[in-house]
Amino acid sequence: MATILYARVSTAEQNLSHQKAQAEAAGFVIDEVLADHGVSGVSTTLAERPEGKRLFDMLRRGDTLVVRWVDRLGRNYQDVTDTIRHFMRKGVVIRTVINGLTFDGATKDPMQEAVRDALIAFMAATAQAQAEATKEAQKAGIAAARENIAAYRGRKPSYDRDTLERVLERHRSGTGTPTIAKELGLSRGAVRRIIQDPAAALAALARWAVRGA
């Protein structure tokens, strides 16, 4: 039985070593790492990516597939839900680093199955919604730039997309603003702005063309 970490690194701001370090810090012993670089989770399904396609061939019953969060599998609701259910039917366990969630096909209790499937659907929908929100924020930033490029950009953000996500992760886990700021090398004000209005923080990145996926 193998433990495989799958990572999708879609931009220069995201980092494969960070995803692997996060998994190991969470207690996972990784046997192999597969990663697709420079691909969108919106326009390409997991099976269309070179390393993602390998997962369908190599994962066997009893294996564990580790992902940082479900958005690494993709940002398309139908693709993500279909993928997770496919692997569960094969007897593969899917585990997330963030929030430590586990999805498998072991339970036969209908209520537990319903709760599990609802959670999978919610997380997949959230991943797609975040991608769509980012796209809209980028469009808004570009439109504003055409009207007044000097005024619309404002101060360049002190964070990138990966750092923004890490701020929100740490905040959700109950970590205080001073600790987050110290860990990530940001000012407390920057951390507070991200936490108070994530959409505005994403828009600021879009205005400076710091893109995530």
From TrEMBL:
Q: Which family does it belong to?
A: Belongs to the site-specific recombinase resolvase family.
Give the positions the UniProt entry annotates as the active site.
S10 (o-(5'-phospho-dna)-serine intermediate)
Q: What keywords sit in the KW lines?
A: DNA integration, DNA recombination, DNA-binding
Q: Which residues form the Resolvase/invertase-type recombinase catalytic domain?
A: 2-149
Q: Name one GO molecular function term.
A: DNA strand exchange activity
Domain of life, source organism = Bacteria
Q: What broad taxonomic lineage does this protein's source fall under?
A: Bacteria, Pseudomonadati, Pseudomonadota, Alphaproteobacteria, Rhodobacterales
For whether the record's keyword set contains DNA-binding, the answer is yes
Any GO BP? DNA integration
Protein name as it appears in the record? Recombinase
